[in-house]
Design goal:
The chain is α+β, with helices and mostly antiparallel strands and 390 residues long. It has three domains: 11-167, no CATH class; 177-279, no CATH class; 288-380, 2-Layer Sandwich (Nucleotidyltransferase, domain 5), CATH 3.30.420. It has helices at residues 11-29, 47-50, 56-69, 115-132, 137-147, 159-172, 176-187, 217-223, 228-251, 270-279, 344-359, and strands at 37-41, 45-46, 78-81, 105-106, 110-112, 192-196, 202-206, 209-213, 255-259, 288-295, 304-312, 316-325, 331-339, 362-366, 373-374, 379-380. It has a five-stranded mixed β-sheet, covered by helices on one side. The chain has a four-stranded mixed β-sheet with strand order 6-7-8-9, with helices on both faces. It has a three-stranded mixed β-sheet with strand order 3-1-5, sandwiched between helices. The two termini are 40 Å apart. The model has no long low-confidence stretch (mean pLDDT 92).
Amino acid sequence: MQTRPPEPLSRDSAELLAAPIADDLRRIIGEEIAEAGLVMPAALYDLTEILRPGLPMVEALLDIYRGSLRGGPFEPQLLSLGSSGGRFPESALAPQRRPGSGPLLAIPFALVAPGEQLDPLRRKLESTLLEKGRAGLATDRALRQLMGIEPVNLSYATFHDLSALLKVQLEHAEFGGLWQLIEGALYRPDSLEDVGLESGNRFIGSAGSVWTPWMTFDDWSARNTADVETALTGYGRWVRMQRQYMAGLESHGIEVTASAPAKGTRAADPEVALSVAQAHAIDARQPWYRQVVIDHGGVNSAAVVTVTEQASRELGPVAYTALAQAADGKLLTLVHDYPVHPDGMQAILDHWAERARSMGAAWQVERPGNIIAGGEPAQLQPWLDYQGRA
C-alpha cells in the first residue's frame, strides 16, 4: 500500500525543528546568515508541490514574512509554521500528502534579506549549499523524533539544485521530454517548447501551460497503416505516454489542455501547431473527445443504446463505443468517446445512461475485457456478441 508523508508538525514541534536547521545553515554558510530572516513550514513536500510555475511556494513564504513585519522595517527573525487543530496556517502552504509521494521529499524554507545582502548570500548558497550542505546530527535526530521518519542522505539544496536533481531523475527514466516541458514552464515562460515522442504524442508548452493534440485509435492506425495487432500495441503505447506526460505536468501545477486532432496540430512549425491546438481545444467541462463514425440522425428516438468499454488489462478503459439503434434495429449513431482525463471514464457512462433514460431506451454496458477492432487499417468496433442480453 502506498504511504503518505507524515502530517505537518504542531507549532511547538515546528520550533524544535527550525532551531537545528538554523544552526546547520549558520555552520554551512557562515555567521553572516544571522543577518537574514528565515521562514519555514514544518512539513514534508513532494518535489511536484515545490517546483511549480512562478514558484508559488516562495511567494507564499515571503508574503508570510512580510506580514510578520507589520509594515515596519526589516528584522531578521526565525519563523516556523506549524499546524493548529489539524489545520495549517496558510492553505496555500498546506502539504498535499499524496500517497506514493517521493522518493525525494523536502522541507522548503526561504531566506529573507535586504537587497544589498541578498545577492552575495544567493551566490554563496548556489556555490556551497549542495556541495557542503549535509544536515547535522541534531537535525537528523529532530526529524526522526518529531516526524517519525528515517531520513537518508539528508542535505540542503537550492531550488535550482532541486531542479537539477529532478532533471536527472526524469532523464534517467527516459522522460527527458517531460523535463523540457516542466523546465520551460518554470524558467522560460516566454519560450515555445515543442516535444514530439516516437509513439506519436506531441506536447507544446507556452506561457506556463501545455497543449496536446488528442489521437484516436483509428487516427493512429490510419497514420501508421496498421493491422489490428500492430495498432493495439502502438496505440497502447501512445495512450500510456499521453497519460504519463499529462499526469506528470499536472502534478507540477502545469495546466494541460487537450485539443481535437485537427490537421494543423501536426504542422512542422510549432507556432502554427499551437495556434491550431488552441483554436480546437477540448472543453474541460466535458472531459472526453468524441469521434463520430456514423450519424444517421434520429438518435433522440433510439430504442436501444449499447456502450462497449474498450479496455486493456494494462491501461484500463481507453475509449467507449456507443451504438444507438431504433426499435427495428436500424443503426442511428455510432461514436467513440475517449476519456481525456481519468474522470472522463465515469462521465461518459453517466452521459449515455442519462441519454438512454431520457428516451426510455434500453441501456446496456458491455465489458468484453479487451479492445475490439478489425480491418486494415484497424478501426474500433462495437462488441456485438451480446449473447441475447441486448
